[in-house]
Amino acid sequence: MRKIALAAASLVAVALAGPVAAEDVPMDKVEQAVKYRQAVMSTMGGLVGTAVGQLRDGFEFGPGLDTVAASLVATTDDIPALFPAGTDFGETDATAEVWSDAEGFAEKSKEAKEAAASFQEAVASGDKATLMGAFKAVGDSCKGCHEAYRKQ
Ligand code: HEC
Asked: Where does the record locate the signal sequence feature (predicted)?
């Protein structure tokens, strides 16, 4: 918590430094860029865990499943952008193939993006069987990329 508060406090300095596009992360921001993508990935993990609690364990409290699905759509929208060139070293679990096989990585990203969109549609439909199938596909898409592009 303290760490997050400190990070939030340092936001002021970041705001003053100006925006950084994915294609030109400067050397002195590589560490932050790695942490940033891990934070976005952790968010996805939290969203999937939230959906598991509701779909498998039946918890009816917490954020609505439609919001969870919408957030998955948002976080999977452009995964390759989270892996800018030059952020392939340091405290990262990304394998070199993320960059050397950018096409394959983009394909896995697309699968996750499409799975999230289908899950959102399934949530809106309210059909439980469709919902479970669509959610499983989301999990499979995460796993599919991790097996290929994340250090085990
Ligand atoms: C296209 C590839 C790809 C997809 C799709 C993908 N991930 Fe990841 N994920 C990665 C890579 C690569 C890393 C390692 C990042 C790093 O350490 O720099 C990672 C790391 C993570 C981490 C660890 C973050 C940390 O704090 O170190 C979590 C949690 C995670 N992913 C969850 C998910 C979930 C949940 C999904 C599906 C909704 C998903 N990922 C989809 C490639 C992917």
From this structure: 1-22
Which residue among 34, 140, 142 is best mutated to probe the pocket of ligand 1, counting the most ligand atoms within 8 A of its Cβ?
142
> What is the model's pTM?
0.92
Q: Which atom of ligand 1 is found nearest the CA of 34?
A: 18
| Span 20-44, pLDDT tens digits | 888 788 888 999 999 999 999 999 9
Best CA proximity match to 86, nearest among 36, 151, 146, 24: 24
Q: Let me know: does 65 contact 116? Beta carbons within 8 Å.
A: no
Domain that holds residue 102: 2-149
Separation of CA 3 and ligand 1 centre (Å): 21
CATH code: domain of residue 60:
1.20.120.10
How many distinct structural domains can be found in the chain? 1
